[in-house]
Design a protein that fits this description.
Layout (H helix, E strand, L loop, with lengths): L83 H12 L3 H6 L5 H4 L21 H13 L8 H10 L2 H4 L3 H17 L7 H10 L10 H11 L7 H4 L15 H17 L3 H12 L9 H18 L11 H8 L2 H8 L4 H7 L4 H4 L3 H9 L1 H9 L5 E3 H8 L4 H13 L4 E4 L4 E5 L7 H26 L2 H9 L28
Antiparallel strand pairs: 1-3, 2-3
Helix pairs in contact: 4-7, 5-8, 7-9, 8-9, 9-11, 11-12, 11-13, 12-13, 13-18, 15-16
């Protein structure tokens, strides 16, 4: 599958060099066609139902502009009690050079880390510690203060400075503390009624902490969920531009749900920006992720959204990969989404009737549903081109169920301008269809070929790594003497799902 193409080169995370202190400008106006603040039903959903509880709830749309500005947020200043033990603890943290030594310090209480130094000064604000030299010390202190309900939250100025200048290699020695910090930043932003203030520090954290942009960390789902819940979708694009290829459990205390939430939220952000192909890729990764017996509820929500995105993209439902979990396929086939996909786009009356089902609003899929309905006339017109060479405007209006000839003309002109259709409208209202111009130039094809070759090499390298992994070899040895029970390729990815006829009647 083709990953999202980078919209800009992201900041390097291979060293401790300072990163930009804010993500790209958040141009909410650029997605106004998709996201309408005054009409919730017309917006792309930003969360799964409450049962999944995987992505934060939707926050009201914010005005366009930069999300950097967290430093202007109000903060509560409270003095902290001094404790001589903190000085000794900071010395031990500074001298720690391995993950094991850092783990031994994790028993330090949050109350101690939230206290002041022996001389009464606050190590965060007194200039005693610097993010570059004292990354671990500040990481422990900031995460403790953000986690503890007994101590005041640090200022966003301090959080911003740390996330922009910390030493990534040192921070990787304490992955659990990085997770606490990321989640604490979100809570601190919510505490001051300014959720978008969390985006800038989280952006710096998610782009600087991993060894490469292709590494998944626990910060990724937190950052993407925040971008979606605050409707600042464009802030996520530099991160989504690089597909996840590496998962290092020693780097971050990841769990299965982190991977699902990241790709699900990424799909929502890309769908909100009408980057349908990229959105489909991310939703498919979530929907088809391996599952032992029962798939996650979030995967079913990804399947539902994926069906609607496919209808918008192709005018018809697309077969899900054969390794999609069988339970997901059965549940999808018994839902209104299945009925809607089968009726799309020709059965207009059925589509309108099915669209009234409350499940679409409950699933927060009204926005995608409406966009699929809006494209029905276009897909019917495209199907007409395979049967007719010429048609009159009134005939086309009758076929697509539109009363206004001017509206039909406007749709045709827009389709021709966007390259969806090749057609000529004569003075007497006769439409002559022709083949649309090729959508790709030779340069585009050459770039695609180079990309395909690089992906093939990457896949080959990944396969070799997998074949040499301990888990794979253990499973291979266990089943060596019992070939009858050896799982096929599909079983290695979870139970097989849809077949080639998944969209056909039983």
């Amino acid at each position: 599958m083709s990953p999202p193409q980078p919209s800009q080169s992201g900041p390097s995370v291979s060293d401790a060099a300072p990163a930009p202190t804010s993500p790209p400008e958040v141009a909410t106006s650029s997605v106004s066609a998709t996201i309408t603040a005054t009409d919730p039903a017309a917006s792309v959903p930003t969360t799964a139902p409450a049962a999944t509880a995987a992505v934060a709830s939707v926050a009201p749309a914010t005005a366009a502009g930069s999300v950097a500005g967290a430093s202007t947020a109000p903060t509560i200043t409270t003095t902290v009690a001094s404790d001589p033990a903190l000085d000794a603890l900071l010395t031990r943290i500074r001298e720690a050079i391995s993950g094991a030594q850092i783990a031994a310090l994790s028993t330090a209480t949050d109350a101690l880390l939230a206290s002041a130094l022996a001389d009464g000064s606050d190590p965060v604000t007194a200039g005693v510690l610097t993010p570059e030299e004292d990354t671990l010390a500040l990481l422990f202190i900031l995460s403790a203060r953000l986690q503890s309900s007994q101590s005041p939250n640090p200022s966003f100025d301090a959080i911003e400075e740390f996330c922009a200048y910390f030493d990534p290699e040192k921070a990787r020695l304490a992955p659990a503390r990085v997770t606490i910090l990321a989640k604490g930043i979100v809570r601190a932003a919510e505490a001051i009624a300014n959720p978008k203030a969390a985006i800038s520090p989280l952006y710096n954290l998610v782009t600087r902490y991993p060894p490469t942009p292709a590494h998944l960390t626990t910060v990724h789902p937190v950052f993407l969920s925040t971008c979606v819940s605050t409707r600042h979708f464009t802030a996520a694009l530099p991160v989504l531009a690089t597909p996840i290829m590496n998962i290092d459990m020693s780097l971050s205390d990841l769990n299965y749900n982190d991977h699902l939430v990241y790709h699900y939220a990424g799909g929502l952000a890309l769908a909100a920006l009408k980057r349908w192909r990229d959105a489909a890729d991310y939703l498919e990764i979530c929907a088809t992720a391996p599952a032992q017996q029962i798939p996650a509820a979030l995967q079913l929500e990804a399947c539902k959204k994926l069906v609607l995105v496919h209808l918008i993209m192709y005018g018809e439902a697309v077969q899900l990969p054969k390794y999609t979990h069988a339970v997901l396929v059965r549940m999808l086939r018994s839902s209104p989404y299945w009925s809607f996909a089968k009726a799309y786009p020709q059965q207009r009356a059925s589509l309108q009737s099915i669209a009234k089902n409350e499940i679409f609003a409950t699933d927060k899929n009204t926005g995608l549903l409406n966009q699929a309905l809006d494209r029905v006339p276009r897909w019917i017109i495209k199907k007409l081109t395979s049967t007719y060479l010429t048609l009159s405007l009134p005939d086309i209006a009758k076929e697509i169920g539109v009363d206004s000839i001017d509206e039909v003309r406007e749709i045709l002109v827009d389709m021709v301008a966007s390259g969806e259709l090749g057609a000529h409208i004569s003075v007497d209202g006769t439409v002559t269809f022709s083949d649309p111009p090729p959508p790709y130039s030779k340069a585009d094809i050459d770039r695609a070929l180079v990309h395909a070759q690089s992906q093939a090499k990457l896949l080959q390298d990944t396969e070799r790594t997998l074949a040499a992994s301990k888990d794979y070899l253990t499973k291979a040895v266990r089943h060596k003497d019992d070939p009858g029970n050896w799982p096929g390729d599909e079983d290695l990815h979870g139970q097989p799902g849809g077949r080639g006829d998944m969209w056909q009647d039983d």
